[in-house]
Amino acid sequence: MKASTQVVRAGRADAAHNIVNPPIYRASTVLFENYAQIFEIRQSKERRLYYGRNGTPTTWCLADAIAELEGGAGCALFPSGLAAIATSILAFVRPGDSILVADSVYGATRIFCDSHLPKIQVKTIYYPPAVANIENYFDDTTRLIFVESPGSQTFEMQDLPAIAKAARARGIKILADNTWASPVFFRPLDFGADVSIQAATKYVVGHSDALAGSVAASKDAWPAIEAAARHLGQCIGPDEAYLAQRGLRTLAVRLSRHQESAMAVARWLEKHPLVTRVLYPPLESSPGHEIWVRDFAGASGLFSIVLDEKYKARIALLYDSLKLFGIGASWGGYESLIYPADPVRTAEPWPARGSVVRLHIGLENPRDLIDDLENALSLMRA
Ligand SMILES: *Cc1c(COP(=O)(O)O)cnc(C)c1O
């Protein structure tokens, strides 16, 4: 089945009384019929209601749907994307290990690695995202590689099949942050990753009204992910799970519109005299374009532009003149957003001198978005 069919159908087996969407079960305590049933349910190999933290039909509906979409053996759910990332790393590392993390990784992932992993004697080494030979970074302590392709803010593509090939030969695990593409456009597990993580907060929820994270894993990696999520008390609230499964049903159709509009806006920006670069992998001029063409089925609506250095002092004018772009963090909802990007680099310096501006292209008419940008950019130039 194609992803656009899967998003509509997957995970709906548990919907009660033939109601289309799953009911919202609010549960901590689950009552047992009698004394013996406590042990029967505890020992059961099947999925049984036991305690709210361990899941309810509301959360199972979403977990099953994402597992199917990502092609995983299972999927664990989290209260945020960051909780999903931190738990996935903790699932595999031991004292004395080191991990390799893409230098273009999401900022909060970097902060987690730098602030918490040293406490358990795990070292983080950052590699340039366009690395040609990842094995040059391997040593006997390398436990896992954390890939994010395209990277946050600057959108460098990574050659996941090449990284996976090198890692597999050494038993190194690969964790991929797949938030940008979602499994509709890219399935990291099919390209050699062991774990695919999403900040479901973004496109899955799709309406800027809930936080959620998901981790789908291969058969080999699933037991470690499932245990880490359970032992660290990770779970998702019933309303968040409900909203995420509801968002999922329209994910494919929303993404295709985000893509179409983002492409129109990006192509227009590419020709604008104030814009020196458009960092968006589906553009031929964007670094890593050939990897995107080879591996991805589409692009979402998030990209960055680099402005001419001459206009650095006037950058606030761009943000403050736009009428249709909200100034806000996060993305993946229906409305367009603008936010400053501030690439933090420790493996290699970020080369551009001009301001980097991240745009999320929402579901508005792209012509209106271009007019809005045209007006704001011309005010900057005036
Ligand atoms: C937003 C984001 C996250 C974190 O998700 P939250 O739900 O905000 O914690 C992780 N990775 C990427 C690429 C993101 O954009």
What does this structure look like?
This protein is α/β, with parallel strands linked by helices and 382 residues long. It has two domains: 3-248, Type I PLP-dependent aspartate aminotransferase-like (Major domain) (Aspartate Aminotransferase, domain 2), CATH 3.40.640.10; 251-381, Aspartate Aminotransferase, domain 1, CATH 3.90.1150.10. The chain contains 13 helices and twelve strands. It has a seven-stranded mixed sheet with strand order 1-7-6-5-4-2-3, sandwiched between helices. It has a five-stranded mixed sheet with strand order 8-9-12-11-10, covered by helices on one side. Strand 2, helix 5 (107-116) and strand 3 (123-127) form a beta-alpha-beta unit. Helix 1 (3-9) packs antiparallel against helix 3. The mean pLDDT is 97. The structure holds pyridoxal-5'-phosphate. Keywords: Lyase. This is Cystathionine beta-lyase. It comes from Taklimakanibacter albus.
How would you summarize what this structure contains?
Helix content is 35%, strand content 16%. It has 382 residues and is of the alpha/beta class.
CATH 2nd-level architecture of the largest domain: 3-Layer(aba) Sandwich
Q: What order do the strands of the largest sheet run in, or round the barrel if closed? A: 1-7-6-5-4-2-3
CATH C-level class of the largest domain: Alpha Beta
How many β strands by DSSP?
12
Query: Per the principal axes of the C-alpha atoms, what is the gross shape?
Result: globular
Secondary-structure content class: alpha/beta
Nearest-integer average pLDDT: 97
Largest sheet: 7 strands, mixed
H/E element string?
HHHEHEHEEHEHEEHHHEHEHEEEH
| Uncertain segments | none
Bound molecules: pyridoxal-5'-phosphate
Q: Note the gap between the termini.
A: 53 Å
Approximate strand percentage: 15-25%
Q: Looking at the chains present, what oligomeric state does this protein adopt? A: single chain
Protein name: Cystathionine beta-lyase
Enzyme class: lyase
Organism: Taklimakanibacter albus
EC number: 4.4.1.8
